[in-house]
Structure formats: structure tokens, C-alpha cells
Specification:
Layout (H helix, E strand, L loop, with lengths): L3 E10 L2 E11 L4 E5 L6 H9 L6 E6 L2 E2 L10 E5 L10 H5 L1 H5 L4 H14 L15 H13 L5 E5 L7 H18 L2 E6 L2 H7 L2 E6 L2 E6 L1 H6 L4 H6 L4 E11 L2 E6 L2 E6 L11 E6 L5 E3 L7 E13 L4 E6 L5 E6 L10 E7 L4 E4 L22 H7 L2 H5 L1
Parallel strand pairs: 3-8, 3-9, 6-7, 7-8
Antiparallel strand pairs: 1-2, 1-4, 4-5, 9-10, 11-12, 11-14, 12-13, 14-20, 15-19, 16-17, 16-19, 17-18
Helix pairs in contact: 4-5
Bound molecules: adenosine-5'-triphosphate (ATP) and magnesium ion.
Adenosine-5'-triphosphate binds next to helix 1.
Length: 392
């Protein structure tokens, strides 16, 4: 087991800065996931840990020892990459034992180790088969066994489950988690699948454009996304642009095109009056309300423009104004007609607040470069605010 330190890693390709000062301390035995959209630098980072790519600046350390210039084969790594296929001309046992043979381990010891590994991946009887005689998921499990054969200090996996169908992927996620916990090998895992990252990782490094956007446990990032992008990429989120009007006992009051919203001031972030902001709330915190006013809630009027049956919930798309639609997770026990006027409500405590960003990637500012905010007048408040908002 090893502690892996990525220290100020940067990389340029043809004038493009693809990694921009990435620093992560991966603890011994930790399962750390690099998560982020295509092209954000996940594979490049992993390849630096592997020694396939050398950083332009920065260092890679294992247990405090600088490994930046150490060749791959001397780093004691196990690797499972999406395109890192099994050797087709070798049977499963020979694939799994490959590194051990190369290291000169006696035959009897190799057989014993291979048997242990095939038991670990729960494929004890396939040793004689060739890769082409296995399913995709079985092949991937064999690839994991092969990566573990020489008891690596660090396990690197790049989208190892990317090619599998949903059910198999879920089953394999579970297997991976069990194996990693059992062996306690420091693991750096790359995926762009947020659910995979949430369910497998001790911590997630959320990357964007060659930088770490947020580093934390799945719960920390999900519950407390540091930026609109973090909120958008991990889970689902609705944004409403607005303007900070007032700060009072524990809450900011924010004017939006459709009324006033409250947001708790628990956030350490400093906002000033007049700031353009993004109010954000997750679909699971929203409800479609019968009445306009509810204590302790934010309420926005809208119309149901679409509904999608997903099996678990009905997702309603509620149009709040020309620029803003809300996705609401609804229950199936009542039906709401399309185009019906509704109120979208949520607890003030479930509201996030960010400085305004005009960012098409997260679905903000597509229709306009200016947030549509309405200056608050006494009349506006009286008409559109719920009692709770008006009274606090
Ligand atoms: N050898 C290379 N030469 C030039 N550009 C490269 C090279 N390798 C990567 N890049 C660029 O660096 C950026 C980051 O690539 P990287 O493979 O790390 O992304 P990623 O996060 O793994 O994306 P994906 O989810 O699509 O695999 C991309 O813009 C890519 O085009
Ligand atoms: Mg990649």
C-alpha cells in the first residue's frame, strides 16, 4: 500500500494547458476517483501516476518518495484500462499469472496465486478458457485479477466498466468495491459516470478544464457543492438567476424574475448587496405545491410543460419563465396535467447560492447573457411572495 501525492502537476500539449496545477494527496488504502467531463484531464493525470506521461511541472510521490522519473515497471502498479485488453492468445490463468512469470516466480506458486485471484473475482473455473470465451464483464474481472496478481502498491483504473451494460456495470461496481476493501489497495479510479463515482469512492476529485473543481467525500460534494459546476455535475440541479437584495437574520433575500427567494446564510461565502447570483436547488428537494404560501419555503409559480415517467419517479419539467425550467421529482400517486399552472416549492434550507456565472455547459445563460432579474418593489413583493418570505 502506498500514499500517492500529486504535487502541482501541469501539462501542455501544443500550447494547450490540459492540466493546470493538479494537487491531490491520496491516502493509503483510499479509493479516490477522478471524475469530470470528457477532456478535463482525468486520463492524463492517471497516466502521470502510471509513468506513461511525464508532467511539465510538478511531481508524483509514492510514500513521500519522488517517482516522477521512475519507469512504469518500477512503480509497483496494477492497471486496468478500458482499452488495456487481455492477451487473446493466452488462457485466463496465463493472463492472470503473466506478471508473476515475468518476475520469475516458481510455477507452483504462480498456480496457487492464480487460483486465489480467480476465487477473489468469483470466477474459479475459467482458468483454462481463452478471453474470447468469456463475456465482457468476465473479461473485465480477469483484467482486474491480472492487475492484482503481483500485489501492487497502487491500483489504477481508467473507465474499466465503460464498455459494459448497465446491469453488469452495477454488479461489477459492487465486486470492485468488495475487492478493493478486502485488499485495501490504494486505488485511483477514473470515470465520467457520477453514480459510479458516488457509490465507489472514499473521495472524489471533481475535475474541470485541467483543474480540480472540488475534492471531497461523495457526501460532502453532493451536499455542499462548492461551485455551480460541482452542483451540476454531481447529481441534478436547477438554477435560477437573481440579484441579492437584502441580508437579514440568517437569510439572504434574492429577487428573481418570478419573485423573491430566500437562501440561508450558513455559507461562508461572502455576498454583497446587489450581487448577481445563482439560486440552486436539487430536484429531490422540490415539490409541486397546491398552495402558494408555505412557511419556511421558497415558492415559484410555473407551468408543467413536460413530464417523464422514469419508473422510480415522475420527472416534471416546470417552466418558471422563458429562461428557467425546473425539474421536479414527483410521486406517481397523483397526475398533473400538462400545461397546468402549479407552484414549485422547497425548503429554504435546501437552497444553495453561488455568484452568477454565465456558463452554457451548466445550462445557465443559454438564452441570454444577462440574468433576468426584476427589481423588487413593495407591490411585487405583496403579489408574488409567499407569506413566509415576506414575513422573515
Ligand atoms: N497525447 C496528446 N496529445 C495532444 N493532446 C492530448 C494528448 N493526450 C490528451 N490530450 C488532450 O488533453 C486533454 C485531456 O485529455 P484526457 O485524455 O486527459 O481527458 P479525459 O478527462 O480522460 O477525457 P475522456 O473522459 O474523454 O477520456 C484533451 O483535450 C485531449 O485532447
Ligand atoms: Mg480519459
Amino acid at each position: 500500500m502506498a500514499r500517492v501525492t500529486l504535487e502541482n502537476l501541469a501539462k501542455w500539449y501544443g500550447g494547450q494547458n490540459v492540466l493546470d496545477i493538479v494537487s491531490i494527496d491520496v491516502k493509503e488504502g483510499e479509493f479516490l476517483t477522478l471524475l469530470g467531463p470528457s477532456g478535463c484531464g482525468k486520463t492524463t493525470t492517471l497516466r502521470m501516476v502510471a509513468g506513461f506521461v511525464s508532467p511539465d511541472t510538478g511531481r508524483v510521490l509514492f510514500n513521500g518518495t519522488d517517482m516522477t522519473r521512475t519507469p512504469t515497471q518500477k512503480r509497483r502498479l496494477g492497471m486496468v484500462f478500458q482499452d488495456y485488453a487481455l492477451f487473446p492468445h493466452l488462457n485466463v490463468a496465463d493472463n492472470v499469472g503473466f506478471a508473476l512469470r515475468a518476475a520469475g516466480m516458481p510455477k507452483a506458486d504462480i498456480s496457487k496465486r492464480v487460483r486465489e485471484l480467480l476465487a477473489l473475482i468469483r470466477l474459479p473455473a475459467v482458468g483454462e478458457r481463452f478471453p474470447s470465451e468469456l463475456s465482457g464483464g468476465q473479461q473485465q474481472r480477469v483484467a482486474i485479477a491480472r492487475a492484482l496478481a503481483h500485489t501492487p502498491a497502487v491500483l489504477l483504473m481508467d473507465e474499466p466498466l465503460g464498455a459494459l451494460d448497465l446491469k453488469l456495470r452495477e454488479a461489477m461496481q459492487h465486486e470492485l468495491a468488495v475487492i478493493q476493501q478486502k485488499l485495501g489497495i490504494t486505488t485511483i479510479y477514473v470515470t465520467h459516470d457520477q453514480e459510479e463515482a458516488l457509490s465507489l469512492s472514499n473521495r472524489i476529485a471533481l475535475m474541470r478544464r485541467g483543474k480540480i473543481e472540488q475534492l471531497g467525500t461523495p457526501r460532502e460534494i453532493y451536499r455542499n457543492p462548492a461551485t455551480p459546476f460541482a452542483a451540476f455535475f454531481l447529481g441534478k440541479i436547477n438554477f435560477v438567476p437573481g440579484k441579492l437584495q437584502e441580508k437579514q437574520a440568517g437569510a439572504y433575500r434574492i429577487s428573481t424574475s418570478k419573485g423573491m427567494l430566500l437562501c440561508p446564510t450558513k455559507d461562508e461565502r461572502k455576498f454583497s448587496l446587489g450581487d448577481q447570483v445563482l439560486v440552486a436547488v436539487r430536484p429531490e428537494h422540490l415539490r409541486i405545491a397546491e398552495v402558494a404560501s408555505q412557511n419556511g419555503s421558497n415558492v415559484l409559480p410555473g407551468r408543467v410543460v413536460r413530464q417523464k415517467f422514469t419508473g422510480k419517479v415522475v420527472q416534471y419539467e416546470v417552466r418558471v419563465d422563458e429562461m428557467t425550467s425546473f425539474i421536479v421529482d414527483g410521486t406517481m400517486d397523483r397526475s398533473i396535467e400538462s400545461d397546468a399552472p402549479v407552484q414549485v416549492a422547497w425548503d429554504v434550507s435546501a437552497t444553495y447560492l453561488y455568484p452568477y456565472e454565465d456558463d452554457q455547459e451548466i445550462g445557465v445563460g443559454v438564452a441570454s447573457t444577462e440574468p433576468q432579474v426584476v427589481e423588487v418593489t413593495g407591490k411585487h413583493e405583496a403579489n408574488t411572495l409567499s407569506e413566509s418570505l415576506a414575513m422573515t
